[in-house]
Amino acid sequence: MKKNRAFLKWAGGKYSLIEPIKNQLPTGKKLIEPFVGAGSVFLNTDYERYLLNDINADLITLYKFVKRRPKTFIDDARRLFTCRHNQSDAYYSLRKEFNQSSDSYYRSLLFLYMNRHGYNGLCRYNSKGIFNVPFGDYSKPYFPEAEIEYFAEKAKRAKFICLSFEQVFRRARKGDIIYCDPPYAPLVQSSNFTSYASQGFSLNDQSELARHALRAANKRQIPVLISNHDTPLTRALYQNATIRQLSVARSISQKGDARKPVSELLALYHSARVIPLTQSIKKVGT
User: Fold this and answer.
1) pLDDT band, residue 1 (cuts 50/70/90)
2) What is the edge-to-edge ordering of all strands in the sheet holding 242-251?
3) Is the pTM of the predicted complex or chain greater than 0.85?
């Protein structure tokens, strides 16, 4: 079966892991994703309905426009994919416009432009909410017209929301499936903790996500699948789940000669596996 690519570049995107994820996802009528990102799992599964969430309001607004008026969006976005706009001065000028604009549609067009013209397709904001990814300097950034069209067609089955993951869990009902692809836990807790926590998903959030997953499966019969790094920390957090280790071909270093494979896992909290909630999740660091 042909795999469908997302129209956005995305750090930690799941395109290369679609098959093992699909193999672990239970059947159901609706898939809920509290951390949808670029949407590779959404694009490559076949549920009747989807509830797709992300805490990034710019991302969700973009998806809503693509769903609502894909042809207009494609025609308008294409105008930004020219030789003139693929220069550093043009990029930084448009990035400044993005950060100063309150026009949600224009911001959505620029979000796609910066995703394809910015460095490594990163999505990064500073503490003041200013998008600050530098120019990528690519020879000819790809305009993902076909990918946008496919996304828009598939989005007819989806509802897009921008809430916390806790709020999304509360919206789930029996018969739904939840797939979580949160910001990954640090590979080295001591050295990565400060920068990691500043991104808005702390180690306490990791623990809370595991607690919500256990409660959803155990109390409400809603299965939950979570992706993350395979570390002693995540193994402890997901002790009540069925864990599958993945051999991942991606790399974590920007320097080609320093790249190393990274181990990941899939933790499945299945509604059929009843575990007493008195078996509380270990606190981080214990």
Assistant:
1) confident
2) 158-161, 49-53, 30-33, 176-180, 224-229, 261-269, 242-251
3) yes
